[in-house]
Amino acid sequence: MKLKTNDPCWCGSGHKHKRCHGDRHALTYPPVTLGRVSPPRAVPDGIARPSYVTTGIVPPQTPQIQDAASLTRLRRACAVAAEVLLRTGEQVGIGVTTDDLDRVAHDVYVELGAYPSDLHYRGFPKSICTSVNGVVCHGIPDDRPLEEGDIINIDVTAYIDGMHGDTSATFHVGTPTAALAGLVDTTRDATLRGIAAIRPFEPLQRIAEAIEPFAESRGYSVVREYGGHGIGESFHGAPHVSHHVDRRDDSIVVPGMTFTVEPMLCSGRARFHQAADGWTEHADDNRPSAQFEHTVLVTDTGAEILTVTTDGRTAAGTLDTVNAARSSPRTT
Q1: 3 state SS of 216
Q2: Would 168 be classed as within a structural domain?
Q3: 302 and 172 in contact (C-beta within 8 Å)?
Q4: What is the spatial distance between Cα 183 and Cα 204, in angstroms, rounded to a whole number?
Q5: Is 179 among the domain residues?
Q6: Which residues of 139-178 are buried (b: 16+ CB within 10 A; e: fewer)?
Q7: Which domain covers residue 132, as residue numbers?
Q8: Are 85 and 316 in contact (CB under 8 A)?
Q9: End-to-end CA distance of the chain
């Protein structure tokens, strides 16, 4: 059931939602203005590039089904992406620009022998996407410094061994307010709940059925226009993974299929417009939005998160996280 402003807050505080995690004053932000974008960073010639970098042609969006050999290569790409995200996220702080974060990420990609999949994809000029506050997605790193109370989504995709690994997380800048912490924590939990709902030979819509009602029960809205996507040798492939319930979608998942789960939750209405740069998507009401993302593999029993480092670390959470959340009284 969708939480209304005068309902008791989902956190169990006893306050009305609008006086607690739905406090509009705490979630009112000025529009994010676009800053100066520096030139694209160079990638050494010895690092392999996706074909679209040299040809400008994006391959057809076919389903991505892995065998043992291709899965080994994909695991490496996903581990690299997880490492880039962790090390870039560690540098988030007051006064740091999103271009600074792009430089950090770019250097880690190169250090690990990977190409930044975003760079020159359909003309995108930077190595990561950085979406601050009311930017829903596809923010271009620039010279705007991060400020106390901001949130920022960092979206990383690494190309190595002929495979793309894709992951993202939302980070706080400085000390978060309760309202912003609720948005970010709920978005992470919703992402993991969607992954935990995956079962082989069942509808892809199980993901949306786990995400959208949960988000709405906390007063958040789910972006419909963007979703997850098949991934592997193709950066973006079939299927389109909706995070809102769409009864027209009759897709079935099968073992070996790989795709991303990456819901965007808004603290206001999930309506947005594109900036003049042709990429940045701004929420119409400027209220903050958050996103988390993992690349996942459909297994014989459920789903496995691939975007973790070789020693199991990730900035986007694990299925242990969602199991713990489910056991908490406030999330039931």
Answers
A1: helix
A2: yes
A3: no
A4: 25
A5: yes
A6: bbbbebebeebbbbbbbbbbbbbebbbbbbbbbbbeebbe
A7: 58-331
A8: yes
A9: 12
Cα distances (Å, whole numbers) of residue 173 to 25, 147, 180, 189, 270: 18, 7, 11, 20, 23
In a 3-state reduction of DSSP, which class is residue 295? strand
Distance CA 22, CA 18 (A): 4
Whole-angstrom distance, CA of residue 284 vs CA of residue 274: 10
φ, ψ for residue 95, nearest 5 deg: 90, -15
Instruction: Classify residue 118 as exposed, middle or buried by CB count within 10 Å of its CB (0-12, 13-18, 19+).
Output: buried
Rounded to 10 degrees, the C-alpha dihedral 51/57/62/63 comes to: 50
Longest dimension (CA), the chain: 59
Which neighbouring-strand residues pair with 164? 159
The reply to whether 139 falls in a domain is yes
Question: Quick check: 242 pLDDT over 60?
Answer: yes
For residue range 92-114, what is the model confidence (pLDDT) as tens digits?
Answer: 999 999 999 999 999 999 999 99
Tell me the one-letter amino acid at 134: G
Residue 40: closest CA among 142, 114, 139, 145: 142
**Residue 252 resides in a domain:** yes
CA atoms of 89 and 188, how far apart (whole Å): 15
Q: Into how many domains does the chain fold?
A: 1
Q: Summarize pLDDT for 174-225 with one digit per residue, the tens.
A: 999 999 999 999 999 999 999 999 999 999 999 999 999 999 999 999 999 9
Domain of residue 294, CATH code: 3.90.230.10
In the numeric block, which tokens belong to residue 175? 């000390």
Structure token pair of residue 277: 């740069």
Distance (Å, rounded) from C-alpha 91 to C-alpha 99? 12
